[in-house]
Amino acid sequence: MEKVDTFIRDLKERRKLETDKYKKAEIERHAEEVEMMYDIVQATENFIQTKENLAKNLNFLTLNKHSIRKVIQETETAKGLPISIEYQQQAMNLFTDGITFMNNFKDVQRILEADKSIDFSKPASDLLDCTKTVENEVRKIRLSFNQVEALHSKVDELKSTLFVDEGDNHQDLDDSVFH
């Protein structure tokens, strides 16, 4: 009888430890989910803000394209500018790079659209699958524990209904049931 009680006590302690472990893992998992969702929201907001800033700047350059070309043509024909040749070359490179960038805007837009197609639902679905798996394992453990408790109560009932001497036969019964 002591072995059965010890066994049940060990099972209850194990169940309590598993429950505590599960609760702790559940809290950690929830914290990770919240952090991941926050990171996803921040990344999405940053992406949208960057895209808006880029579109705004490109619209500004597009609207001023004629003026920029006129300034470049004037700098090529002007003699004796009040700025050094070094700064003149840097300004011309800036405008030339800006025009090249505007002409390649469709490629940039295609890249931005490709980045927009990132699927954030995959990590979320993986988290849900993991949670369901853990939940199923916990259910299996609870079911096993309940079955062991039911077995223990039935063994106690059988012992009480059998008229067995308290001597060697009782120990033999314990050994035959649990070994």
Give structural notes:
With 179 residues, this protein is an all-alpha fold. It is built from six helices and no strands. The longest helix is centred in the N-terminal third of the chain and has 62 residues.
Chain-wise SSE layout:
Layout: H1 2-63, H2 65-77, H3 85-103, H4 105-116, H5 121-161, H6 168-178
Helix pairs in contact: 1-5, 2-3
Strand % is under 5%
**Count of runs of 4 or more consecutive helical residues:** 6
Round the mean pLDDT to the nearest integer and report it.
79
Q: Please estimate the helix content.
A: over 70%
| Structural class by SSE content | mainly alpha
The main sheet comes to: none
Q: What is the rounded distance between the termini?
A: 13 Å
Runs in which pLDDT lies below 50 for 5 or more consecutive residues are none
Shape from CA axes?
rod-shaped
